[in-house]
């Protein structure tokens, strides 16, 4: 475990930040604007603070879906 050891997310929530970043990347790769994808991911995180990447993507896609 020297200086070259990879950083591991700790119990401070590093995993949820990574999940949010991955979900944001997935949504922008699908063609959503960064700003609307970021808002949808933030909303999804607010509803489920421990959600993994796939759960955040599903929730964000639901909020981005056309209403009506």
Automatic annotation (TrEMBL):
SUPFAM superfamilies in the cross-refs: DNA helicase RuvA subunit, C-terminal domain
GO CC terms, sorted: Holliday junction helicase complex
Domain of life: Bacteria
GO molecular function: ATP binding; four-way junction helicase activity
Annotated coiled-coil segments of the chain: none
InterPro entries per record: RuvA_C (IPR011114), RuvA_C_sf (IPR036267)
Gene3D superfamilies: DNA helicase RuvA subunit, C-terminal domain
A Gene Ontology BP annotation from the UniProt entry: DNA repair
Holliday junction DNA helicase RuvA C-terminal domain ranges (all copies): 19-64
Protein name (database record): Holliday junction branch migration protein RuvA
Lineage of source species: Bacteria, Pseudomonadati, Pseudomonadota, Alphaproteobacteria, Rhodobacterales
